[in-house]
Amino acid sequence: MMDMYPKLLVDERGKKYLLKKDVKKFGTDLGVVELEEVGKTYYSHKGYKFYLVEPTMYDFLKRMKRNVTTLLPKDIGFILARGGIREGETVVEAGVGSGALTMYLSNAVGKSGRVIGYDIRVESLKVARRNLLMVGAIKKGDKIVGLDEEFDDDVEVEDGLFNVTLKLGDVREKIDEKDVDVIVLDMPDPWNVIENAKKVLNKKRGRIITYLPYIEQTKKVVEKLKEEGFWDIETYELLERVIEISEKGVRPSTRMIGHTGYITFARVPPEESEDDSES
Ligand SMILES: C[S@@+](CC[C@H](N)C(=O)[O-])C[C@H]1O[C@@H](n2cnc3c(N)ncnc32)[C@H](O)[C@@H]1O
Predict the structure, then answer these.
(1) Domains along the chain?
(2) Which residues contact 14 (CB under 8 A, 6 or more apart)?
(3) Is residue 197 marked as binding?
(4) Would the CB of 71 count as within 6 Å of ligand 1?
(5) How does pLDDT run across 93-147, given as a tens digit for each residue?
(6) What gap in Å lies between CA 3 and CA 210, rounded to an integer?
(7) Among candidates 261, 258, 265, which has minimal Cα distance to 97?
(8) Which of 27, 86, 174, 216 is the most exposed place for a label (fewest CB within 10 A)?
């Protein structure tokens, strides 16, 4: 994983730096550190302590390039858990944005599953492609379907999952995949996707998940889901509080994120059975 930035340098204050694998010397305001093996403690020329370790996916999420608002861990985690997204499933996602959610979807469905990420913006797809390449969700040289462009990648992850396909496309018009287990929509007008979603979702376990910043949008999507017979519909908003623990005492941080989005979950209706005789 994360072959391009396989090193995470952490100073005594907890400040973190993602470093390229060939970096052997790094300068900070706490001095210059000579770096060798990952998994060791080093000291700068000023005597400050540093850890050199592997970054987690969370470290990468916090520092990756982005050109749209990305989902936060609290919402990503709940989408995976309440959505019941598991190994082997086929997930369609739109829009991919910078690929924050895509990274975690890729991990959840594993080697035997796949994630197909749509976006209508080439710039979003290119940023997502780069991020996903670095975490081994896509392979060096992989193209974006629908975009006639070759990529000359300088990153190669050997043991990635390689289970994500990126597509330039509007899911309001068409979803190419069939027998889809989960559709996740982080886009402004998901109600325009519900009819397409209903056609391609697996009737045994197909689910849809939408993420929207406004309650008016959420009401509109829920009304459309009901109209199309979707069931097990639930909407959530999650609040996160960081707890500060110090000598003086323990209390929630005085600052918190006020609002991110409303997350709605629903299941597709099964087909009518052919035998409609009453027993
Ligand atoms: C807020 S961003 C998604 C962020 C993403 N969830 C992440 O965590 O990085 C919304 C994205 O939806 C894309 N989008 C909007 N309408 C779309 C549509 N009809 N089909 C596909 N993508 C769409 C936009 O181009 C934009 O990149």
Answers:
(1) 7-55 (3.10.330.20), 59-270 (3.40.50.150)
(2) none
(3) no
(4) yes
(5) 999 999 999 999 999 999 999 999 999 999 999 999 999 999 999 999 999 999 9
(6) 32
(7) 261
(8) 216
